[in-house]
Amino acid sequence: MHTGETPFTCDICGSSFSRRSTLQTHMRIHTGEKRFTCDICGNGFSRKSTLQIHMRIHTGEKPFSCDVCGTGFSHKSTLQTHMRIHTGEKPFTCDICGRGFSQKSTLESHMRIHTGEKPFTCDICGSGFSQKSTLEIHMRIHTGEKPFSCDVCGTGFSHKSALQAHRRIHTGEKPFTCDICGSSFSRKSTLQTHRRKHTGEKPFTCDICGSDFSQICTLRRHMRIHTGETPFICDVCGSSFSHKSTLQKHMRIHTGEKPFTCDICGHGFSQKSTLESHMRIHTGEKPFTCDICGSSFSQKSTLEIHMRIHTGEKPFSCDVCGTGFSHKSALQAHRRIHTGEKPFSCDVCGSSFSRKSTLQTHTRKHTGEKPFTCDICGSHFSQKCTLRRHMRIHCGEKPFICDVCGSDFSHKSTFQTHMRVHTREKPL
After folding, report:
1. pTM > 0.85
2. Which secondary-structure segment (H or E) carries 51?
3. Pair 342, 352: CB distance under 8 Å
4. Strand partners, 37
5. What does the pLDDT look like over 213-261, one tens digit per residue?
6. Are 186 and 176 in contact (CB under 8 A)?
7. Which residue from 280, 279, 247, 249 is spatially nearest to 261, judged by alpha carbons?
8. Cβ(355)–Cβ(373) under 8 Å?
């Protein structure tokens, strides 16, 4: 008979019960007594009913079946939780962001996103994790365990998701599509990275210099600038590099590999950027412009050298006489004045020169080549400086002025001849 009376009270916590046997069972919570033991694994339980439920782990018994999909469960509570998949019920709600969850344990795990709590710690490296399952996956880094294998090629993976993504290499499946440009990807993470090209989002920031990056791997590579880390070492000469790609480019010095070829003239190059610079010879493109005088250049390095004309910077100094030069090549040519070295020889007459450019100009005496043409009258010249002097005829420029009488002249030689009128010097 159910009277609702609860005469049996727990002396420890004050809970009351209608039956003495129920109180006795309850007391085992406080005493820790576990009088019911599993004969198979030795686990102890305070209730007989709990032992009976536990035994289903060993027997495989699943007496509770889902009416919708037929899945069987060993616990009634597990079936009730499962049913929420079909009903869409999410009775557990996050107070912070409002997200709903079908299980209380899932809500508890989710809350750690907001609290930052990481209660599961790796005993080997000390890394903390918000979920036990994430720690278990992390441990495979240390153990080397790869429980998920590809049935096509046999490659092993530590994550099930990594195996699923890998399988798409074999199937060619690309289920993740960009809403903006329509590009498809085999991995969701690759799509997320791709979308940042459209949004301009750069969520990864360098703590040292504040630079922003769209990918965490790019930030890691960038950090080597600050740390000086150069983990990629050349087996041939021992040079070390901060980026793997830089090492790969460097190796072409040793192998002589030139994988980038000019479609126009057939020249080969070890780097793509060098080919791109070379192509401007053919296209005439000059994308680098001087902000001061407007001169354009095909290469950024040439613009940087040109800027020294305006800044007056002469970073290369002769260690013999101290003369400064804006170009390293100009210093090298100048040093030959002191050494007397003339490494450039004419194949026709044997004359030697200290500068390659002087040899090239000299060679035109033998070939008759006149590559510099006047746009106005069509006259041809063997030297660029001769063309410049010629242009004064057309533009009327007379830069050489007599200090005595004020007469002006377009050529220095004519000016010098005129000066003899004042000095009474007789020409030779």
Report:
1. no
2. helix 48-59
3. yes
4. 44
5. 999 889 998 998 899 898 999 999 999 998 898 999 999 989 999 999 9
6. yes
7. 279
8. no
